[in-house]
Amino acid sequence: METENNNWGQSVTGVLIRDNKVLLGRHTYGSGQGRLIIPGGYVKNDESPQEAVKREFLEEVNVVIEPKEIIGVRFNMRDWYIAFAVDYVSGEAQSDNNENSEVLWVDVDEALERDDVPELTKKLVRCALHRENGFKSIPYNGRHTPCSLYGVE
């Protein structure tokens, strides 16, 4: 896990559901150690959240994804965390043997019942199942680039 150039106040994650299975990795450190969670991590300086979630998936589980709707945002006094519904593009899921010890495609209903899947992951999986209600990307050219706008149109 590279820690240089991280923006410690910004993190991202994505929920990838394919054939009614969600992609989860067994986390190897911190409060999520030993638990099955969705891939994600910190945004690097000069990186957009969309670029970060794509990079995190490739680094952690060897899968190329495309971020779509924002399905959740968590704020606290120190940082923010954006959750995307993501679409599968390519790659065969495998562990990075660093941040996760194994990668599994778990049936969605089973993932929502398992004791080793944290509540936040379960909530975001539920949000991804209802992704048509998520915030959509809205074309927008702001004064500072790159920029993006998500909302309900």
Low-confidence stretches: none
CATH topology: Nucleoside Triphosphate Pyrophosphohydrolase
- Which sheet architecture does the biggest sheet show? 7 strands, mixed
Number of domains in the coordinates? 1
Kindly, what is the distance between the CA atoms of the first and last residues, rounded to a whole number of angstroms? 38 Å
Kindly provide the radius of gyration, computed on alpha-carbon positions and rounded to a whole number of angstroms. Answer: 15 Å
| Category from helices, strands and their pairing | alpha+beta
- By CATH, the superfamily comes out as Nucleoside Triphosphate Pyrophosphohydrolase
Number of β-strand runs: 9
Task: Please describe what this structure looks like.
The protein contains three helices and nine strands. With 153 residues, it is an alpha+beta fold. It has a single domain (6-151), classed as Nucleoside Triphosphate Pyrophosphohydrolase (Alpha-Beta Complex), CATH 3.90.79.10. It starts with 5 loop residues before the first strand and ends with a strand. 32% of the residues are buried. The mean pLDDT is 90.
